[in-house]
Structures are given as C-alpha cells and as structure tokens.
Amino acid sequence: MRHVWAIMVLVLVGADCVAAKLNELPFSGVLPDDRKLDMSGTVELRAQGTIAMALRYGCQTERVAPISRDTTFVSCSSYERNDIKVIAKAPWGRTTTGIWLDSFHLVFKVNWGDSGLNLISDTAAVEVARPWDISGAEWQPTTEESSRMLKLIADATDTDTSLVTGGDAPQLEVAAFDVQGAISAGHTFDLVLRLRNRGVGSAFRVVATTRSSVSALHGQRFEFGVLKPGEEKIRKRKIDFPSTETGTDAMVVLVVDEANGYAPPNASRRWSFVVAQAEVATQAKGEFNTNCMIREYPTAHPTIGVGENVVVRCVVRNSGTTAATALVSVAVAKVQTAAPATRIDPGGRVTLEIPFSLPRDLVVGADIQFVVATSDTAGNRVGQTTIAATVAKPKLCVVGGLTRKQYYSKIAALKDARGAGSITQAEFDHYDSELVSCLK
Fold first, then answer.
1. Residue 305 and residue 396: Cα distance in Å, rounded?
2. Which fold has domain 285-392?
C-alpha cells in the first residue's frame, strides 16, 4: 500500500464538530493514484445517532497545468470523492460506509436496530467503550457517547435491559417459533420468535438462543429484555442459508433464559429444506439464475418510504447450453411490473434495472417482500427470489437525488424553523438524518 502524505493546509472545523481526536494514520482503503487523503481530524456521535467526521486536511486531488506542467492539489470533486469508500468498523465487527458531504466532512448512518451487539450481556458496556476503526484511523468514543450508543441500540430494538429481583413471578411461553418463507440453499429467510408473559410479574433480561446441528441455525440470539405481565414481543433474525448445505431437514431447539430463573421449557422444531435439491436439478437443466437488490438500498432488509420510486437491479445468468430469452417481473402486494424480454447467450449474463414505485396503500411499519420471478418465453417460471423490506412513512427526498447545494439550502430552512420554534431539536435531527440519506 502506497503512503499517503499529509498536506499542510489549515482548515477551520466548525463548533458542532468538536469531539475526540482521531489518531493520525494514513487512509487504509483503496485510493486512486492522483488523490491524497489523511484521516486525521475529529469525530462525534450526533444526537440522532449518526457519526459525523471532520477531516483536518480533507480529500485532495492532483491537477497538472497544461503548459507549465506544474502540479497542484485541490479539493476533490463530488465524483472524485465517491471513488473513495471510508468505512467505520464497530469494535464488535459491524461496518458502515460513510457518506461524503464535502471534501472535509462525512457522516455514517449506523443501523442501531441491527447493530450486531449483544445488548443483554456482561460485556456490552465494555464493547461500546472500545475504539472504532475508521479506514485506518482510530476513534475512541467518550464515556457519554458510549452510554448513548447503548441507549440508541436499546431504543431501536425495543430492548429494556433493566433488572429487578424479587416480586411476583412471570410466566413465559413460546407463542410462536417458525420460519417465514421456504428454507432454500443459497437464499435468505426470516426466523421468527414470539414470546408472551402470562404471569402476574415482569420477566427481566430475557434472551432466547437456538441450538442445531445445522450451522446456519445454531447460536441465533433473540434479545427481548423486559416483558411485562400480559406483554408479547416478536423478534426476527434474517438467516443466510449456505448453498453448500446438503441435508434435507433440521432440528432446532430454542432455549429461553430469564435473569431471575423464570425460564419456560425448551421448545423444538423440525424444518425441511427440500427446495435446495429442486434448485440444483433446475440449474442442471440450463435455466436462469437471478440475483437481485434494490439499487438505492444495497443493504439487507432496507426501509423504503410509501410511494417511493426505486430500481430493482437484477443479474440474470443463463447456465444452460443454448441461448434463451428471460422474462423478469417484480411484484409487491398486488402491484407488478416487468423488464423487456432479454435474450441471453449460454453461460452469459445480463444486468436488468426495473423501476418500481412502492404502493401507497401499504401499512407503515409492515414487512414486505419484492417477489422477483424469472420465466422463459413459454411462460414457465424457472426461478424466483425475494427481497425483504420494511415500509416507512413518505420521505422528504429521493435517495441519491439530493445535491450538496440542495442539502445545505434545506438545512438552512430547517434551522430557521427550529429557531422560530416551529420544529423541535428532535424533529430537526430526524429531518437532517433523512436528508443525509438522499445525498448523491
């Protein structure tokens, strides 16, 4: 890896970017030859849960004068910045890619609802106090920021970690424990658990864990925290089922723990996954293999606003020995659209982009699936895949459609509204977070 040399340019950092200093270390990611990036600067955890980073020297790109051939360095353009991926890695392993606001500022929109941290554990407070790696630089959160991380995760997951000993006894029961969708090799599905407290007392620090001889189903952890009398909670885990799994069924045992010892009996389930064998047979006949994602939301299980326009991007491969024509359609609820018929050579692949508008009659907060079906010209369905998502309220802006100039203009208007008392600080932080997600 080539060295990245610091550029001695003074930059005044705004007052709202005051925070723990980053240790001065070179950028550890992939950097084009004509660019320089020193990771020294400051970072802070903002009220709405985003991590804000202010670079001391910023992203710099080389310019060569056409006549004199003199070399100078100037701030990177938006296009040049987007080539550089700055990654924030939490001490427990989860990563978040930064969003460039300008050459000196980035934000990281951490998904606290799926942080990967075991909140109900003796080590949670220790984990959040450890330093983060930000593309080679190290950020040490303050004690106050570490405490806020725990609260952000607890709020996002509806997990109360408090503990009270004594009092009336709870009565926990496994109300439901099942899978959503078929268990198929090389695909994902949801493992769903619903616990209910039928007792007269509260249950505390409730955690459920799976045991199974199938590795993908073993050690899955569901944290519930406090369940009050009569309360019921649902937890889901997205399971990536390996394509190498050769069995036909799996036995899964569920073990529930409660801090005061009021655990229910273990529950067990046996699930079949014969679909995997059918898929192998289909591929052997030379059919299509389709892998899809939401272009604007490349992460697993995105949140998409009602009425929002997105693009479903699919890579379709022809694994057969003859050329064939693929018909790919996308459906959510009763709304369906399709890409034009596309001919694919044997062993070849094509990338299709299918515009889709999320129906406006969907319930906010509901879990949905984009069902992507691939058929041949005879109308035979030869493949199907799904993309899970959650429905959100309509958004202020379109993801990837907001320029920096538009962002700063909207923020200025929001600041005026906040100063006039029209919106609260919490509302301002929420709007700011949503606008950041729309930046190009």
1. 9
2. Immunoglobulin-like (2.60.40)
- The residue-averaged pLDDT of 275-281 equals 40
Beta strands, E only, 183-308:
188-197, 203-212, 221-227, 232-240, 249-257, 267-272, 288-294, 303-305
59-64, strands of its sheet edge to edge:
35-37, 59-64, 71-75
Return the DSSP state at 217. Answer: G
Intervals of CATH 2.60.40.10 along the chain: 172-274, 285-392
Alpha helices in 228-319 (DSSP H): 275-284
3-state secondary structure at position 44: strand
Confidence at 183, pLDDT banded by 50, 70, 90: confident
Q: What is the rounded radius of gyration, in angstroms, for the C-alpha atoms of the chain? A: 25
- Tell me: the pLDDT tens digits for 77-136? 888 888 889 999 999 999 999 999 999 999 999 999 988 899 999 899 999 999 999 998
On the CB side of 307, CA atoms within 13 Å amount to 7
Q: Which residues pair with 132 in a beta bridge?
A: 139
Comparing CA positions, the residue from 279, 292, 282, 398 lying closest to residue 339 is 292
Euclidean distance between CA atoms 48 and 152, whole angstroms: 9
Q: What's the DSSP call for residue 12? A: P
Q: Residue 93 and residue 179: Cα distance in Å, rounded?
A: 26
First to last CA, the chain: 29
Mention the CATH class of domain 172-274: mainly beta
Task: Identify the pLDDT of residue 233.
Answer: 95
Amino acid identity for residue 290 in this structure: T
Contacts of 367 (CB under 8 A, 6+ apart): 190, 236, 388, 389, 390, 391
Map residue 18 onto helix, strand or coil: coil
Q: What CA–CA distance (Å, rounded) separates 7 from 419? A: 38
- Tokens representing 371 are 């069902």
How far apart are alpha carbons 73 and 71 in whole angstroms? 7
pLDDT value of residue 211: 93
Q: What is the pLDDT of residues 347-356, one digit of tens each?
A: 888 999 999 9
Burial (Cβ within 10 Å: 0-12, 13-18, ≥19) of residue 144: exposed
Best CA proximity match to 141, nearest among 174, 92, 186:
92
